[in-house]
Amino acid sequence: MGRPPGGPPGATPQVESGSVSVFNDTALRDRVADAVIGARAYQLFTYAQASRIAAGGSIGPESSLNKVFWSELDIALHETALDLLGPYGELSDEAGEAPAHGSWAEGHTFSLAGPIYAGTNEIQRDIIAERLLGLPKGRR
Question: What superfamily would CATH give domain 21-132?
Answer without folding.
Answer: Butyryl-CoA Dehydrogenase, subunit A, domain 3 (1.20.140.10)
